[in-house]
Design goal:
- The chain is mostly helical.
- Helices cover about 50% and strands about 0% of the residues.
- The protein contains six helices and no strands.
Length: about 100
C-alpha cells in the first residue's frame, strides 16, 4: 500500500498547530551553538561510548567466501542467527566442537 505524500501546506499547518514545538526563529538560530560547545562534558562522554560493541575475547575473522545458494538459503530460512549457525556447523566439520 503506497502512502500519498503530505503537501507542504499540510506540513506547515501541522507545525503551526503544535504549541510544544514552535519553529525556531532566525534570531534563535543565529545564537545556536554546536552540541559539543553547549554540552562539552556530555559530548565527550558520548564520543567515548561510540566505540561500538565491546571487544570480544575471541573475535571473528571477516572472510569472503563463495557458497552454493542452496547452502546459504538453508541456513537463512531459519531466520536471524544464520551466520552463527553456519559457524557452528563449520566448527563441527573441522572437529572443533
Amino acid at each position: 500500500m503506497t502512502k500519498k505524500p503530505i503537501s507542504e501546506a499540510k506540513v506547515q499547518a501541522m507545525i503551526a498547530s503544535d504549541p510544544d514545538a514552535p519553529e525556531a526563529t532566525d534570531a534563535q538560530l543565529a545564537q545556536a551553538k554546536p552540541f559539543s560547545e553547549a554540552f562539552p562534558a556530555l559530548a565527550e562522554k558520548m564520543r567515548r561510548n561510540l566505540g561500538g560493541r565491546p571487544k570480544a575475547e575471541n573475535p571473528k575473522v571477516a572472510v569472503s567466501l563463495r557458497l552454493d545458494p542452496e547452502v546459504v538459503s538453508r541456513f537463512k530460512e531459519k531466520g536471524p542467527g544464520w551466520q552463527t549457525r553456519m559457524n557452528e556447523a563449520l566448527r563441527q566439520a573441522a572437529g572443533l566442537s
